[in-house]
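The following block was generated as part of the benchmark described in Methods. Ligand: coenzyme A.
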Amino acid sequence: MTTPGTDPAIRVVLMPKDTNAHGTIFGGVILSHIDIAAAIEVRKHTAKKIVTKAMHEVVFVAPVFVGDIVSFYTSLVRTGRTSITVKVIVEAERVSHPYEYARVTEAEVVYVAIDDNRKPIPIRDEANP
Ligand SMILES: CC(C)(COP(=O)(O)OP(=O)(O)OC[C@H]1O[C@@H](n2cnc3c(N)ncnc32)[C@H](O)[C@@H]1OP(=O)(O)O)[C@@H](O)C(=O)NCCC(=O)NCCS
């Protein structure tokens, strides 16, 4: 399984330092990369300062193993007034089986645009939507 026709926002190989007590990749490490990948997607749509508001429907579908090549694919879900939502699909190319891909995690991440006082501001300039 692959996500054809698209380039991932980021692609990483995870290391032994990224593991949990079972020896597979710690979920928090994957969440961190999801946040970075989704923020890169947001940068295509606004130059405003943004913060992570919520991560919805994070589903760890299958484990990630040390040495897997892990790709984070992103797409815009919706743009609200002050928020923007991005879907992230995570796929691993197995280190033990090159060219074999597994969808390992999915999430939707919500960002909010903020001003210098950390208050929400419109994503789009209302005079120039
Ligand atoms: C981001 C922050 C300024 C927003 O403040 P707030 O009082 O929640 O703002 P609002 O209630 O006006 O909501 C802002 C937007 O977020 C959306 N939102 C709020 N809670 C949400 C949730 N749980 N899930 C999805 N969207 C949500 C609102 O619908 C609104 O979007 P819209 O304008 O497009 O309709 C504030 O919550 C904050 O500073 N949070 C900490 C951010 C942070 O430190 N992140 C981690 C590091 S980047």
